[in-house]
Amino acid sequence: MKIQILLTSMLLIAISHTAQAAPTLSMGTSTTVADSNSILQLSIADTDMAYGGFNARLEYPSCMAVTNVAAGSLLGDSFVIDSVAATDGATTNLALIAYSGTETFSTDGDLLSLTFQVGADCATGQHIVSFATVNAEPLVNTKHAISNQDGTVSVSHLVTNGGITIMETDNDTDNDGMNDDWEILHFGDLSHNGFADGDRDGYTDLQEYINFLANELDPAETAFDPTVANEAGGTGYQEPSQGGSLWILMIPAIQSAVNAGQ
């Protein structure tokens, strides 16, 4: 079903709905390297009523591509999700829509999960993933809209842009196998050597970095973060010892990464 038909069927026309609090559609942020995948959440906050659906048009650099759009925790099984991407020069536009004739969402949380394939030609630095600011069609609000419960009114709302920061893969001045930018992002400095397990979750700091590079998620489908305890059982997990936070690296992949950095 074409997204234009779906947009028209939802009647998400620029009709204002007065509310005490304006809900906010937000794109998440992430840090990754070129030639990898990165997941961003499209979420809603400051909800004050039941909503029947939404649509949005995102803009991002054409060196990236969205390869998967999945329902977030707020959308039930009856929600229909559709997406259409079009590239114009250096920018890609992704039109998204999610609606249901029987279910609603009324709490803060994630609406969609978008997997971005970051191309090898993407430059290092910050790349903005923004909500469109201009309507592609004058009679339909194709920028972004949230509908009321029965889909007859477009609710007044706010938007917050997100983005993906791309790090240099060979930026490892202390030769510990971990990217300096990644270390500073998580630890604030380069004092960590990779062997410690600061959050005591069974993954060394270096293992969490390797899992991050591989775009792996832990068994709870959470991205690896060396400052937040990840779920046990993922790649490189070792049962935490009672004696301290240092680990013997038993995984060949980790040792190989350390040797490569020396």
Task: Please give a handful of descriptors for the protein shown.
single chain; 262 residues; mainly beta; Immunoglobulin-like; 2 domains; eight-stranded mixed beta sheet; five-stranded mixed beta sheet; 34% strand
Short description:
The chain is mainly beta and 262 residues long. The chain has four helices and 13 strands. The chain folds into two domains: 3-166, Immunoglobulin-like, CATH 2.60.40.680; 168-262, no CATH class.
Structure write-up:
With 262 residues, the chain is mainly β. It has two domains: 3-166, Immunoglobulin-like (Sandwich); 168-262, no CATH class. The chain is built from four helices and 13 strands. The strands form two sheets. Strands 2, 4, 6, 7, 9, 10, 11 and 13 form an eight-stranded mixed beta sheet that branches. Strands 5-8-3-1-12 form a five-stranded mixed beta sheet, with no helix packed on it. A hairpin with a 5-residue loop joins strand 10 and strand 11 (154-155). The longest helix has 10 residues, at 252-261. The protein is globular, with a radius of gyration of 21 Å. Residues 1-19 and 243-252 have low confidence and may be disordered.
What is the overall number of helices?
4
Strand coverage percent: 25-35%
CATH class placement of the largest domain:
Mainly Beta
* Mean pLDDT metric: 84
What is the string of SSEs from the N terminus onward? Answer: HEEEEEEEEEEEEEHHH
Which class do the helix and strand fractions yield? mainly beta
- Integer tally of domains: 2
CATH architecture of the largest domain: Sandwich
Largest sheet, described in full? 8 strands, mixed
Remind me, CATH topology of the largest domain? Immunoglobulin-like
Q: Whole-number radius of gyration? A: 21 Å
Low-confidence stretches: 1-19, 243-252
Give the terminus-to-terminus CA distance: 54 Å
Q: Helix amount, in percent? A: 10-25%
Shape: globular
For the secondary structure, the number of strands is: 13
